[in-house]
Write a structure and sequence with these properties.
about 160 residues, mainly alpha
Length: about 160
């Protein structure tokens, strides 16, 4: 018998514990199904990548070349394509870089109020002198022709 009725009424209620279900390993069928789904996703991704073009890369904006500089370079390279093609690679690079430097210097000389024709002539001669075994008279003649064409360009 209970000591008193009060204790019996206050008895804590303990919920009945349900037996835990033991986690079962997925069956072989489920494992195979998951594997198939994964493989299908991989195949779809590969096919999508193969079919769809790659997203366009951001276009690199090349600085717009000065039209005067472009015309000067065109004048300087005129009639020299055959000679340039026979140069070896290191000499080609040197000739090209020196030609670009020369064209920039000429552009600045043209931009001045008083055009220094003699300096333009000398710059072109120095540039053409890079070519090995070239005739001195050919260099003078080409430099004169190119200087005249550049001066005509400035008058326009």
């Amino acid at each position: 018998m209970p000591k008193n009725d009060f204790e019996e009424k206050i008895k804590p209620v303990v919920p009945e514990e349900k037996p835990r279900e033991i986690e079962k390993e997925p069956s072989e069928e489920i494992k195979e199904k998951k594997k198939e789904i994964k493989e299908e996703k991989e195949i779809k991704e590969k096919v999508t990548k193969a079919i769809l073009p790659t997203p366009p890369r951001e276009a690199v904006k090349m600085p717009v070349k000065d039209p005067v500089l472009t015309k000067i370079e065109d004048i300087l390279e005129e009639d020299l394509i055959d000679i340039y093609s026979f140069l070896d690679e290191p000499l080609k690079r040197e000739f090209r870089t020196k030609g670009e430097e020369t064209s920039v210097k000429i552009k600045f000389l043209i931009a001045k109020t008083k055009i220094m024709v003699k300096q333009i002539f000398e710059l072109i001669k120095e540039w053409l002198a890079i070519i090995p075994g070239i005739n001195k008279f050919f260099v003078d003649k080409e430099a004169k022709i190119k200087t005249d064409k550049i001066l005509k360009l400035t008058k326009k």
